[in-house]
Design brief:
globular; cell membrane
Length: about 475
């Protein structure tokens, strides 16, 4: 549920129309190829998680294999990428929630909603920003006091949004519009098959999320077996849902119609073929908005979990302040790590949305390259290590994963230099700040002996292996 909750976020709702604008009906191919690219790195995550059952995701793997500075920069990038993603999900939640209220006549359209005055602070805050802050604070509070409650919320919200997409798919496949669908010409006439690559770079972020599963390894029963299973199940289910949704959208509204609708493409498709006067949900567009609200909430909750576990792992390893790596004496949660992540996440809301999203995509692509390198290095340096799961056809999957992720990284960087140089500047600045923080922490002597894991679900054999 953490993996699917993160992957099936707002991306499928807002990126389908944009992918159709670039690649035409081949948007279906774009999502399929991104799923394949993601699967190669997913194999590496599965093997590493089974071999190194530590919380912290990619950071924990790199920390086990690389030197201090390399592992610190990996954790620093991942931590920030998750927190930026959280800010974007919160900002995505606000307009969708306002649109949902507008559907029922409770507020004006989102574009017409004004600011809210806060007399005590003598401030006037846009309602969308206020809602984003409230969403972050609510989920942070839930995660801070109870891991079980945050996990239950993730499960419920994910089931609701997947159910909504299944309803969309079933109505679409049975509609007369889909029976006469035309998927030709597959590629746009001006760009041809060359349109696939930039569209993949744009939509790749929609497949980021399965890696969040490995950030909670020590909170899962039998992690050596269950973490790889969860990675594969979430990837397979997400790819199936994505392909079905995009196929229905292109088959009913058409690539041109989706492109014209842009970020509202899925909602426009639902409105075109779903009946009106549905119980509670008035029409197809309202149903999709309802799904988008739950999608942004599940994705936000997932990255609150993930970012705090990366910070917790770094604190436990002595690469952040020691307080980050301690569990709360009463709640049993990484309380300080959660609060610190929340502060940066709330601050990231002020970043330009497009630049923040591009930074997040860049950091995730770089981290996937490093994880694929890590699995190769671990095989070479520790060939006799206990590996409950070993990927098939090694070393082909990690090598292919490295090549494909590097290709998408180069495409993205070239695109950013042309269209969003601020994202490049911010990315370099964050890494440079990480270098300064690393040297500062070393100087004040905070790099101490790692604390012993306190999670009671880890077996003694796992502790010896670690």
């Amino acid at each position: 549920m953490i993996g699917m909750g993160a992957m099936i976020g707002a991306g499928i709702f807002v990126l389908t129309g944009l992918a159709a604008e670039i690649a035409g009906p081949a948007a279906i191919v774009v999502f399929a190829l991104n799923g394949a690219v993601t699967a190669f790195t997913g194999l590496s995550y599965a093997e590493l998680a089974a071999s190194i059952p530590k919380s912290g995701g990619g950071y924990a793997f790199v920390r086990e294999i690389f030197d201090d500075f390399a592992s610190f920069i990996m954790g620093w990038m991942l931590w920030f990428a998750y927190m930026i993603a959280g800010a974007l999900y919160a900002l995505g939640f606000a307009p969708n929630f306002l649109e949902l209220l507008h559907v029922y006549g409770l507020v004006a359209p989102p574009g017409e909603v004004g600011a809210i005055a806060i007399p005590l602070l003598d401030l006037s805050v846009p309602l969308a920003f206020l809602l984003a802050f409230v969403a972050v604070l609510a989920l942070v509070a839930l995660n801070a006091v109870s891991t079980a409650a945050s996990g239950s919320a993730e499960t419920i919200f994910t089931i609701i949004k997947v159910s909504i997409l299944v309803v969309f798919i079933l109505f679409g496949l049975s509609s007369p519009m889909f029976s006469g669908a035309e998927f030709q010409p597959l590629f746009p006439s001006d760009a041809g098959a060359a349109a696939i690559l930039p569209a993949m770079g744009l939509t790749f972020i929609a497949f980021e999320g399965y890696d969040l599963i490995t950030t909670v390894t020590e909170e899962v029963k039998n992690p050596r077996e269950n973490i790889p299973k969860a990675i594969f199940l979430s990837l397979i289910a997400t790819v199936i849902v994505y392909l079905a949704v995009v196929t229905v959208a292109v088959g009913t509204l058409g690539a041109d119609g989706l492109a014209d609708a842009g970020e509202a493409g899925i909602a426009a498709a639902a409105t075109s073929f779903m009946p009106t006067g549905l119980p509670i949900i008035q029409n197809g567009g309202a149903l999709i908005v309802f799904g988008a609200v739950f999608s942004t909430l599940t994705a936000l909750n997932a990255v609150v979990i993930a970012s705090s576990r990366v910070a917790f792992s770094m604190g436990r390893e002595g690469q952040l302040l020691p307080s980050f790596g301690r569990l709360h004496h009463r709640y049993g949660t990484p309380f300080v790590a959660i609060l610190a992540s929340a502060v940066v996440m709330l601050g990231s809301v002020a970043l330009p949305t497009q630049s923040a999203g591009n930074m997040s995509s860049l950091f995730f692509l770089l981290s996937f390259v490093i994880v694929n390198v890590a699995v190769i290095r671990l095989r070479r340096e520790r060939p006799a290590m206990n590996r409950p799961y070993k990927m098939p056809f090694y070393p082909a999957p990690p090598l292919i994963g490295i090549a494909l992720n590097l290709l998408l990284t180069v495409v993205l960087v070239e695109y950013l230099f042309r269209t969003d140089p601020l994202a490049i500047v911010l990315s370099v600045s964050w890494i440079a700040l990480g270098g300064v923080a690393y040297l500062g922490l070393k100087r004040v002597g905070t790099e101490s002996e790692p604390e012993t894991a306190t999670d009671s679900t880890m077996s003694s054999d796992d502790e010896v292996e670690i």
